[in-house]
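Standup notes, structure subgroup. Blocker cleared on the WTA input:
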Amino acid sequence: MSQSSGAAGIESFYLEARTIEPPVGFRERALVADRDIYARAEADWEGFWAEQAAELLDWFEAWDTILDWKLPFARWFIGGTLNVSHNCLDRHVAAGRGDRVAFHWEGEPGDTRTITYADLLEEVERFSNVLESLGVTRGDRVAVYMPMIPELPVAMLACTRIGAVHSVVFGGFSSEALRDRIVDAEAKVLVTADGGWRKGAAVPLKANADVALEETPSIDHVVVVRRTEVDVEMRSGRDRWWHELMADARRHRVPEPMASEDLLYLLYTSGTTAKPKGIMHTTGGYLTQVAFTHKYVFDLHPEEDVYWCAADIGWVTGHSYIVYGPLANGATSVLYEGSPDFPTRDRWWSIVEQYGVTLLYTAPTAVRTFMKWGSEEPAKHDLSSLRLLGSVGEPINPEAWMWYFEHIGGGRCPVVDTWWQTETGAIMISPLPGVTTLKPGSATTPLPGIAAEVVDDAGKKVAEGGGYVTITRPWPAMLRGIYGDPVRYRDTYWSRFEGRYFAGDGARIDDDGYFWFMGRVDDVMNVSGHRISTTEVESALVDHPSVAEAAVVGAKDATTGQAIIAYVTLRGGHHASEEHGQSLRRHCATKIGPIARPKTIVFTDDLPKTRSGKIMRRLLRDVAEGRDLGDTTTLADASVVEEIRARAQAAPSEE
Ligand code: WTA
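Run returned:
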């Protein structure tokens, strides 16, 4: 396959062997233009991170110990105190940069707001006082369920200012998912909005929240931002309008000095069981690594760059690379509320052109969707401001990588494919754009200070070839645990391979030591970059009164990476039909959220089971992906599979 040679120069013409050097113009101005940083970090990795912490952040009191590591519990920068909102706001304003734009915000309907660092600081201080007036103090949990509006980062930063812990719940989650997360965290206050705009419609966030609030005894108050102006019910004594509280709030609030290891936030993510895990992130180490990676992976020049991470703040990507990393570094960002095809399929490209975006960070599923919509959409706009592109959330296939590189980046922008997880808190494996030779489809190598290895089943390092991705020593932004469940923390991440963190991903290492990620090896699906557990969807399905048994697998999908395929056995008296499939999809959306709707539902009288009664998911995946079946000798009843295969071929799929 031949490729046109852009400014960056493609040196090889074969798929796996294509390499792309950093463009000369890019390298000349890059913050890291020398590979020495890798060796320097490796020689003294603790010292390296301490240097970053000192250089990138403001500390009220210095730490006395860099790292205390008692596997699996790490504590970084012990004795140090700092405040996240001070680092993200006050210090920039104090340095005379109050007029710099923090966010160019654009609502889906086309309304805009320009928010400077000084503006943001004022709002955060006021909202800190609002939270305190509602009884929130250090260590209390605040749940946040909001659209992509400026009040969302304001709420998060206000929590950090007073030492409260936020738990942001993605606005696409259902009432029940919200309820479970509020209950697990025992949140005292919920911050939400009447709604948010998505594809021209108002998503009824407050109405969803009201259903959750029926069963959340810990919540004393609800603060509601007016956004869509749909009618909402305000329960007196509990529910208050954001704008009314803010109008009455005092202007100033000093940032609370927090210990480096104080809890900063909880973020729930799917694991292999039905119960989501409250991933715990703390203060000093987390902020150090997000600031470091945001600065060097995106080669941020804060005085000139306009950075846009097009994720939702409800996911970890938004926490680390819309809110904390960019603000800690004094960056100017774009924040966009809505969907990429409203009102037309070139909305993103008009935003890039309008604000002169230089750094764009998005997910492979978005890139593949844009590919499907055609290169004429970006071609309608002047995208020449772009100088770097990023990818996150799932493996990016070489074809999508090349399309992104050529049609969005004009062949001149390095593409940084960044591998990391909710649990890692910050980017772990990624190019440094001024020095790394890129290979389309590879996240390349661990960043300076990070040590990752691929191992085989026995936990032995694989120098070249496939295996499991592990991390071999603690890193500053690593999760500190699962909220309320230290045993699950150890079991999930630190017990499969002795002395190593197990990421749950498979990867291949090539002869240059580059990582080629291959997806999850456990029962977690990755749909459009969102983690969903197969068990969670199965529990939602069997919760439906008509369902006797369900097995869910993720199957390869050209646009969304994986798609949810559900095999369902109905109870007696219930009949398979397309309408019934729709009602099961609706049920999953109610239990978890619209992202959990199965694309295909295969009704079947039986599921393939081993003699001991375990469902053989591997076979179901083979069926879903149209592969020949491997070993079926352990099946209790081999004829079941043929039956399922025939039905799977006939089952309708939802687009
Ligand atoms: C996958 C998102 C390949 C991976 C930041 C990981 C990736 C999971 C990449 C974490 C990438 C993320 N290449 N796979 N560049 N980035 N993943 O917690 O399977 O939502 O374990 O964090 O996404 O998803 P999470």
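Discussed briefly. The two ends are 31 Å apart (CA to CA).
Next: hand off to the docking folks.
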